[in-house]
Amino acid sequence: MKKLLASLFLLLLVGTAGAKEYDGIWFLGFNTEREPFNNLKVRQAVAHALDKEYIARTIVKDDIVPADFIPPGLPGYDPALRPYKFNPKYARTLLQRAKYPPTDPRLKGLTLLHTDGDQTVAIARQIVADLKEIGLKVEPVMVSYRDQERWNRELASGQHPLFLLGYKADSDELFTAEVSAADTDSGQLLSPLFQAGGPANFGRFSDPTLNMYFDQLSVISPALGGARESKLRAIGRLLYKQLPAIVLFYIEKL
């Protein structure tokens, strides 16, 4: 666990060129055990408040605006899933439906944990600005990527309602070791992040149906490609609906 924590933040946001292949996700995570993000409508409001197209195309400089938690090219990717529309007005409506009026103190004093890469800082600033438009007051908490001990402590503490994080499938040294395309598996990408008790489930998300899907996936042989594909699509659709995080871009294969 300590090794995992220490390596999670070593993401280098590189330029892109030519045909792209992906094996990871970079996302805004919610602490789903704490207010206000234990409320699905609030998480949905954030999804509609973020200008993901601006983040993807202008900051990250990628053509894809993610919707599915599974990157294109990996088993289970569902192109029918569409990004939540950028609609701050509807986001404010969702907050009202969740009984969070703009003056609610539970929407103030929130923190967003992130590291200090240039693009990461730019994304964090955009998120803070977008959320301010719907009444959320978010304070960025920046940790140097060189300060592993503090990053580990802050990420594992659960004290931050929001955090920015990247994760790649089936890699012992995340963001430092190459991942073979043949070995890349969507279940190995998502289970650590979103299954209850997963080693990288820093959002403390737990959904009984999702946990059951992951358990079922674990006993489906890789040789049964169709069955795994179907189960992974079910997992992707459930994550899309429950929004334990918001995928901001896909991480390219090394």
What does this structure look like?
The protein has one domain (2-9, 21-252): Roll (Dipeptide-binding Protein, domain 3). Helices cover 39% and strands 14% of the residues. The chain has helices spanning 2-8, 40-49, 52-60, 88-97, 118-132, 148-157, 186-194, 208-218, 225-242, and strands at residues 22-30, 110-115, 138-143, 162-168, 245-252. Strands 3-2-4-1-5 form a 5-stranded mixed sheet. Helix 5 links the parallel strand 2 and strand 3. The longest helix has 18 residues, at 225-242. It starts with a helix and ends with a strand.
Explain briefly what this protein structure is.
The protein is of the alpha/beta class. 39% of the residues lie in helices and 14% in strands.
Features of this protein?
single chain; 254 residues; alpha/beta; Dipeptide-binding Protein, domain 3; five-stranded mixed β-sheet; 9 helices; 5 strands; disordered N terminus
Straight-line N-to-C gap: 23 Å
Number of strands: 5
Give the CATH level 1 class: Alpha Beta
β-strand percent reads 5-15%
Helix content: 25-40%
Give the overall shape, derived from the CA principal axes: globular
Radius of gyration: 17 Å
**CATH architecture tag:** Roll
Which sequence of strands runs across the widest sheet? 3-2-4-1-5
How many strands, what sense, and barrel or not for the largest sheet? Answer: 5 strands, mixed
Number of helices: 9
